[in-house]
Amino acid sequence: MNESPANHAPMIQALLNAGVRLTEALREENEALARLDLSRAATLATTKLQASDAFAAAFGAAMKTGGKAQGELRDAAERLAARLRDLSDENRRLLERAIGLQSRVIETIAGAAIPASRPTTYGGMGQRAMARQTPALALAARA
Predict the structure, then answer these.
(1) Which residues is 128 bridged to in the sheet?
(2) In percent, how much of the chain has pLDDT > 90?
(3) Rounded CA gap, 130 and 126, in Å?
(4) I want to staple 32 with a disulfide (CB 3.0 to 4.6 A). Which of 40, 102, 107, 142 is the partner?
(5) Given its phi and psi angles, is residue 104 left (phi above 0), alpha (psi -120 to 50 degrees) or beta?
């Protein structure tokens, strides 16, 4: 079998195409996250996962054939890799921000709901009993 670089070009091109689809999915999700349009970002997550799976499959196929990008394809692959790295870093940062905001919203709602869910009680002298404060809670996790 002839192992010339020209034989690997279709595999490398398929990898580049999958990479472009992944950059588009990341860019779209990042735009939604930057606008805090979390419902739109959630719908785009499936597209991002599918693009990521397709990219991983194309990468695996290219690695199995021992394909290496040459010339213009190499330049395009390097630009694409840099773009994917930047978009992935931004995606991680924006997702962390969105998760933090959602956590604060949930904590606020839960905190407001707790006193409302307790029945009114009366203490001595017919006055309302002071609401008990929820004790502080700290969590630690190691990955």
Answers:
(1) 122
(2) 50
(3) 12
(4) 40
(5) alpha
Mutual angle of helices 5-34 and 38-64, in 10-degree steps: 170
Per-residue H/E/C for the chain: CCCCHHHHHHHHHHHHHHHHHHHHHHHHHHHHHHCCCHHHHHHHHHHHHHHHHHHHHHHHHHHHCCCCCCHHHHHHHHHHHHHHHHHHHHHHHHHHHHHHHHHHHHHHHHHHHHHHHCCCCECHHHCECCCCCCCCCCCCCCC
For 82-136, how does the pLDDT look when each residue is reduced to its tens digit (9 = 90+)? 999 999 999 999 999 999 988 888 888 877 777 655 666 666 666 665 555 555 5
Extract the tokens encoding 57: 């499959």
Tell me the torsion sign for CA atoms 79, 82, 88, 92: negative
CA 9 remoteness from chain centre: 31
- Does this model's pTM top 0.85? My answer is no
Which residue is it, tokens 């994917």?
84
Q: Whole-angstrom Cα distance, residue 18 to residue 123?
A: 68
